[in-house]
Amino acid sequence: MISKKMIDALNKQIEEEFYSANLYLSMASWCDKEGLSNSAAFLYNHFEEESSHGMKIFHYINEMGGHAIVPGIKQPPFEYKSIHQVFEDTYQHEVYITEQIHKLVKLAIEESDYATNNFLQWFVEEQREEEATFQEILSILKLIGNGPTNLYFIEQEIAKISAKAHTDSSE
Ligand code: OFO
After folding, report:
1. Cβ(16) – ligand 1 distance below 6 Å
2. Count of structural domains, the chain
3. Is 76 a member of any domain?
4. Domain of 122, in residue numbers
C-alpha cells in the first residue's frame, strides 16, 4: 500500500520532470535561434525524454491507486550567454534532479514501500547516465575552449554524443 506522503512526493517529482522538459525545450529553442542545430536537436530529444519521465511517474501513481495531478509549471529561463552556459546549467540541473530522486528513494525505504523503491531504481540509473553524459559534454567544451570559431567543433562533438545517447537509450 502506497502512502499519501509518497504519492504527494511523486506528484512533486512529476512537476520536476515536466519542468526539466520545458527547461530543455527552452534551451533547444535558444540553440536553434543561434544556428546551433546539433545542440538544438540534442536538447529537443531531451525535452521528449523528460516528458516521458514525467509520464512514467504519472502512470505509476494511478496504477498504485493514487491520483496523479497535472502540475502548474514555472517558466524556465530563455536567454543564455553562450552554449557553455547552456550545458553548465543542464549539468547543474541534473545534479539537482538526482538529489530529488535520491530523496524519493530514501522516503520509499523509510516507509518500507518496496514497490516504489523498485520503481525508482530506473530513475536512479537514468540520473547516473544523464549526469555522465552532461559531464562528458562539459569536459569536451572545456577542451575546445571559448572562441566563436570553436562553435563548429562543439556542434560536431554534440552530434556524436547525441548519436551515442540515442543508441544507448534505444538498446
Ligand atoms: Fe528525468 O531525467 Fe534527468 O532530469
Report:
1. no
2. 1
3. no
4. 4-69+81-170
